[in-house]
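#onboarding

Welcome to the new folks! Below is a worked example of what a typical request in this channel looks like: someone posts a single protein sequence, and someone else replies with the predicted structure as tokens. Don't worry about understanding the tokens yet, we'll cover that in week two.

Example request:
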Amino acid sequence: MTIRLRAVDEDDLPFLHRLTSDPDSTGDFQWYGWQDPHRLRKRWEDNGMLGDEGGTLIMAADDDRIGFVSWRKMVADRASYSWAMGLIVAPEFRGKGYGTEAQKLIARYLFDHTTVNRIEASTEIDNVAEQRALEKAGFTREGVLRGGGFRAGKWRDGVLYSMIRSDLDG
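Example response:
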């Protein structure tokens, strides 16, 4: 099944809420507690979840919603910025390579439509499947982020990955 990225429609909001707020759907590494049930609608009504500071797109295949990708601006200095990106695949579609494909698609999209030179992604050090997916998508492991994230009552180490524009051109 080939996936594509598309803008978020209003009828996607319950799906996005499930993937970010339902512990059975978020996955072991994405459950951060219950979320405001109105926050996604507010963002969608504000800008369709696409803006200068970041965005969210649906991963789709035919009529199926596979998951979503999102990105946010990371300002480095007055002259440059990078994107930090991530995704969540719906539980029924995990383990089939869709995350790897979506990471390739979002990297290409961001390099094609912004002047950014760097995209980064991070994951918990125990999330080996996501590390493999990032590497298959062409991201380079940069290092360990000691105590970089708080989830489920504990500070956890992470792993930082990046891709720069020339990685796709090479």
